[in-house]
């Protein structure tokens, strides 16, 4: 029992250390020399006004509306870039504007960025899935990924913040059971301690794996309209597929070379694409 309690104590210390790194919990601070709050407030108001004007215009003058959406994006992106502000709502607004501009690649890119901060936002998930349904490339998720998503649904469906909260609840429940066992020698209390310890370790491991993935794995989205994927890092190599890849296709970076990425698609296929044809999510 003492060994189990020591494990739980170490686990919560690690979890607290990870807490500052959990997606959706951390808040990006403005960089030195960034614009002040007054300038950002003005840009935010202007961007929101332009977005509303575009929505009111799109039915009558779609080209004018597209221009207004573009102006709104410029203001929102200045807040993120020059202001150093990164949050789910801002990136969702940018994604919405790009979607209305029919720029599917940058819409999905910014929805994915928003999901780093607000992973459980229902509206954001709906927007992302709807944008994905509009993609030209239909890349099926590999069978291995489907199995993992089913077996470890709690890892993929719950945010890191929620999993960390469940860990803390289990940790406290385990300690409460351990204290209770001092006074009541019941076998079932030992089972409670064991089960809470196992679940707590699983949840802590889940948060740690996600943090490791976010720091080591690079994910991105193709933003070019028609991108020829190749078998090597040069345009002299043959195309990897009979059809080009299109805006909105998501990938993970396998290797990075000057002006080229080797990427892996959701179905496991690998190829090379130029840097300029894509953007990384973070």
Describe it for me?
The structure is a single chain. The chain has 282 residues and is an alpha+beta fold. The chain has three domains: 78 residues; 97 residues, Tetratricopeptide repeat domain (Serine Threonine Protein Phosphatase 5, Tetratricopeptide repeat, Alpha Horseshoe); 62 residues, SH3 Domains (SH3 type barrels, Roll), CATH 2.30.30. Helix content is 59%, strand content 10%. The protein has ten helices and seven strands. A five-stranded antiparallel β-sheet has the order 6-5-4-1-7. A two-stranded antiparallel sheet has the order 2-3. Strand 5 and strand 6 form a beta hairpin. Helix 2 runs antiparallel to helix 3, helix 4 packs antiparallel against helix 5 and helix 5 runs antiparallel to helix 6. It is globular and about 75 Å long. The two termini are 43 Å apart. The N terminus is likely disordered.
């Amino acid at each position: 029992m003492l060994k189990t309690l020591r494990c739980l104590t170490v686990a919560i210390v690690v979890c607290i250390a990870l807490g500052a790194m959990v997606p959706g919990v951390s808040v990006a601070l403005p960089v030195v020399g960034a614009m002040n709050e007054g300038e950002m407030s003005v840009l935010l108001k202007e961007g929101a006004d332009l977005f509303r004007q575009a929505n009111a215009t799109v039915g009558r003058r779609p080209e004018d509306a597209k221009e207004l959406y573009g102006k709104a994006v410029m203001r929102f992106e200045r807040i993120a870039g020059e202001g150093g502000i990164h949050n789910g709502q801002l990136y969702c607004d940018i994604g919405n504007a790009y979607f209305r501009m029919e720029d599917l690649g940058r819409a999905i890119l910014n929805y994915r960025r928003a999901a780093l901060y607000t992973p459980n936002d229902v509206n954001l998930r709906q927007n992302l899935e709807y944008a994905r349904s509009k993609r030209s490339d239909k890349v099926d998720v590999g069978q291995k990924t489907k199995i993992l998503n089913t077996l470890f649904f709690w890892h993929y469906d719950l945010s890191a913040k929620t999993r960390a909260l469940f860990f803390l609840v289990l940790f406290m429940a385990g300690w409460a059971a351990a204290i209770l066992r001092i006074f009541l020698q019941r076998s079932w209390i030992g089972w409670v301690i064991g089960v809470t310890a196992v679940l707590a370790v699983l949840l802590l491991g889940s948060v740690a794996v996600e943090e490791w993935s976010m720091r080591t794995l690079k994910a991105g989205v193709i933003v070019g309209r028609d991108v020829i994927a190749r078998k090597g890092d040069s345009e002299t190599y043959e195309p990897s597929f009979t059809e080009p890849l299109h805006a909105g296709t998501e990938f993970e970076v396998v290797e990075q070379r000057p002006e080229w990425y080797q990427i892996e698609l959701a179905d496991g296929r690998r190829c090379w694409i130029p840097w300029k044809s894509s953007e990384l999510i973070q």
